[in-house]
Amino acid sequence: MFTPINPATGEAGTPIPALTDDALEARLARAAETFVRWRTSRLDERTALLAAIADRFERDKRRLAEIAVREMGKTLKTATAEVEKCAAAFRHYAQAGPSMLESRRFETPMGPATARWLPLGPVLAIMPWNFPYWQVVRFAAPTIMAGNVGLLKHASLTQGVGAAIEETIRAAGAPDGLFQNLAIPSSRVDALIPDDRIAAVTLTGSEGAGIKVAEAAGRQLKKVVLELGGSDPFIVMPSADLDAAAKAAVAARIQNTGQSCICAKRMIVHTDVYDAFMERFEAGMRAVRAGDPMADETDMGPLSSEEQRQTVLDQLAQIREAGGRLLFGGEALPGPGAFMSAGILVDVPPASAAAQEELFGPIAMVFRARDLDAAIALANNVPFGLGSSVWTNDPDERERFERDIAAGMTAVNRMLSSTPEAPFGGIKKSGHGRELGPYGLHEFMNLKTVFG
C-alpha cells in the first residue's frame, strides 16, 4: 500500500494499493501481447496517437499539476509548466519522429546495405519523484514512437502521478497495454528485470539505485540507460554579465526546491568578480520565498518529504564539520510541512567528502577560482558529470569550457535545462546513455543492417 503524504501540510492522502503478484503478471503479459501488434504499427498511427496524448496533457494540465503538488510539493506554477513541457515532448516526437526512423543506405564491397531502426520490446522505466511527469515522458514519448511499449515503476511518493499518466495516455486512444504503471515497491524490481518479456531498462535516480539496476540488467545482458545524480558547476568569469549570471544562479539553485539533477549546485566564481557576484547572488537567495506551493507568489515549496529534508540537514552538518561555513539559511522552517530556507555555503574544502556529494536541496556551495584552469579543475573535481553552466563572453574561454568540462551538457550564458529536441545525459557517475532527441529514441532500438 502506498500512502501519499502532502509535504506542505503533512496530511495523508488516499492510499493506493500495490499490485498483487497476479496483477503484475497480467500487466507483463499484456505488455508482451501489445508489443506484437504495436511493433508493426504504421508511423502515421504512432504520430497521431502522440499528438492526441499531447492534446490530453494540455487539456488536463491543471488537474495533473495538482496531483504533483500534493504528492511531492512542487509549486503549482512549476508543476503546470512541467505538464505543458510533456505535451511539447509528445508533439515533438509526433512531428520529428518519422524522420528519425528513416533507413539509411550504404554502398559496400558486397553491394548495397540498408540500416533500419526496429523496436526491441517492452521497456521498463524506473523513475523518480522530483519531476514526476517530465522524467516519465522523456522515456514514454520516444518509446511509443519507436514501436516499443512502456512499463513504469514510479517512485513510491508519486504513485498518483504514475496512475494519472497511464490514465491520460489510455484516454487519448492508446491500445490497452501500450503504457502501464506498475504500482510496486522498489524491493520487487530486482525480480522483475530478469523477466524475458522486458527487453531493456531505463532508470533516473540515485547513484546507488543505478548500480543495483545496472548489475541486475547486466546479469541478463539487457540494455540499460542510467540518468543519475549531478553536482553541476556554475562558473562565472570576469567577462560575464554579472546581473544576468546572479539571477540565473538563484533560479538554477532553487528550482524544484533544489531537487533537480541539473540544478546548479556549485558556484565557481573567478576571484576578480567574486565579491561583485556574491553581493548580487546573496541578495537574490535571501529574497527567496518558501511557502504554500499553490500560491502564485511562492518561489519554492517544501522538500519532497520530511525524510528528504532531514537528509539535507544531515549533509549540511557534515559540511560544516569539514570546515564549510553557512552564510545564512539552510534551516528547517517552523510549522507543518517539510520546508527549509534557501542558503549559501562558503569555505567548503573542495577535496572533502562532503563537497563530493550531491546536495539535493536549496543550498548553494560557492568556491573562488584564481583563473580559468582553476575553475575547470574545480568543476571536474567531483565524481559526477551531468551538466554545467558557464558564464563568459570570451570566445577562447568558451572553447575551453566546452572542450574540457567533464560533463554530458554545458549551457553557455544561460541556465541549463532539458528540451525534447536535444540529447540529455551525463558521464562518470552521472550515468550513461542518452534521453531525448534522436539519440534517446534510438537507445532502445535495434539498428539492423540488411545486405542486398
UniProtKB/TrEMBL annotation:
* Keywords of the record: NADP, Oxidoreductase
* Classification via InterPro entries: Ald_DH/histidinol_DH, Ald_DH_C, Ald_DH_N, Aldehyde_DH_dom, ALDH_GabD1-like, GABD/Sad-like
List each coiled-coil range.
Answer: none
> Which intervals hold domain Aldehyde dehydrogenase?
4-450
GO MF annotations, alphabetized: aldehyde dehydrogenase [NAD(P)+] activity; succinate-semialdehyde dehydrogenase (NAD+) activity
Q: Give a Pfam family name.
A: Aldedh
Q: Does the record's keyword annotation contain Magnesium?
A: no
Keyword set includes Cell inner membrane: no
Q: To which protein family does this belong?
A: Belongs to the aldehyde dehydrogenase family.
Q: What is this protein called?
A: NADP-dependent succinic semialdehyde dehydrogenase
Q: Which organism is it from?
A: Sphingomonas metalli
